[in-house]
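Saturday, quiet lab. Running sequence design on the structure tokens for the scaffold JK sent over.
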């Protein structure tokens, strides 16, 4: 199961409108002055987070997104109208990358970011008139809009996050709860990528459980870790290895300090003792489990479903 949905799209701001070349023509004034107006600005392309949009699939077929061009200037000093901005609706939680770098993260509905500016409008010949230059014939054309290829990346919303020190049994717990089939290994840091599994409740609704291997053994945040995924979780399962001789209180504190800035407000933290077939659960644990014997797994799954439903 993949963590992210991705799409690559091309965005282009509208071209600016032409500047106009024109001279006033009136019945009784044979030599009218210059009156060519300026062109309007091209429209910008904006990305807007919209909670009616739930994934990026539409962008597989809609790749090019171009804003409206600016209107051309006209005679009688009329300026062209500005091009309408183009709003491209994306799901909340979309990351925007350009040349591999994040340029924006649209989290809440209504968040928006310009991704391609419209070109400046052209200049009409009226603007070139001066006391020494009474019949200017120069104009400046509108500028091209900015264009770019950008990558949209939508993170799937994680409902349950599994955290803990390396080797605590996070991946094994994810697999036992969801059947995700992620790699479990007897040494730390085998699985750098967060893994994801589905948990179906009694109503057939799928909740996503993620193993977030973002905390290093010394309690620092691992580079490139997806701990930000925690931000939307409503339940956080904190794995505590029962067989580890180090003081459980110290281990818990180390992990909590590392994830503190990502912990969502109001999320429920559950301390899950793992490997209870090897040693008794520490006193700090809210649940005792073993993937070897199956102890506590069905009970924890049922509790999770109760909290999520
Ligand atoms: N005996 C026993 N070993 C376990 C249990 N859960 C995990 N392990 C072992 O602990 C090691 C680390 O597990 P893993 O899930 O990869 O830890 P992670 O680094 O936190 O993802 C592996 O060798 C697992 O087989 C358990 O309940 N009982
Ligand atoms: Mg793991």
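Result came back. Writing it out in full:
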């Amino acid at each position: 199961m993949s963590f992210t949905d991705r799409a690559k799209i091309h965005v282009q701001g509208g071209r600016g409108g032409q500047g106009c070349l024109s001279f006033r023509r009136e019945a009784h004034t044979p030599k009218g002055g210059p009156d060519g107006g300026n062109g309007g600005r091209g429209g910008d392309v904006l990305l807007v987070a919209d909670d009616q949009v739930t994934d990026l699939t539409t962008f597989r077929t809609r790749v090019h997104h171009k804003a409206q061009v600016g209107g051309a200037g006209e005679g009688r000093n009329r300026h062209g109208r500005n091009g309408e901005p183009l709003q491209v609706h994306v799901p909340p939680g979309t990351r925007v990358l350009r040349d591999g770098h994040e340029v924006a993260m649209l989290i809440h509905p209504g968040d928006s970011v310009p991704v391609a500016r419209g070109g400046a409008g052209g200049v009409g010949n009226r603007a070139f008139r001066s006391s020494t230059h009474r019949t200017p014939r120069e104009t400046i054309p509108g500028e091209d809009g900015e264009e770019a290829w950008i990558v949209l990346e939508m993170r799937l919303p994680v409902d349950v996050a599994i955290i803990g020190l390396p080797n605590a049994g996070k991946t094994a717990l994810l697999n036992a709860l969801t059947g995700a089939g992620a790699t479990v290994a007897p040494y730390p840091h085998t699985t750098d990528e967060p893994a994801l599994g589905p948990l179906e409740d009694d109503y057939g609704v799928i909740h996503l459980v993620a193993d977030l291997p973002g905390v290093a053994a010394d309690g620092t945040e691992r580079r490139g870790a997806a701990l930000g995924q925690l931000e939307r979780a409503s339940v956080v399962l904190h794995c505590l290895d029962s067989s580890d001789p180090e003081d459980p209180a110290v281990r818990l504190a180390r992990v909590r300090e590392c994830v503190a800035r990502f912990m969502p407000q109001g999320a429920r933290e559950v301390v899950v003792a793992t490997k209870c077939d090897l040693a008794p659960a520490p006193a700090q644990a809210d649940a005792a489990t073993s993937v070897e014997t199956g102890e506590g797994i069905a009970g924890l799954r049922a509790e999770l479903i109760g909290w999520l439903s």
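Notes for JK: The radius of gyration is 30 Å. The mean pLDDT is 91. Ask whether to fix the surface positions before the next round.
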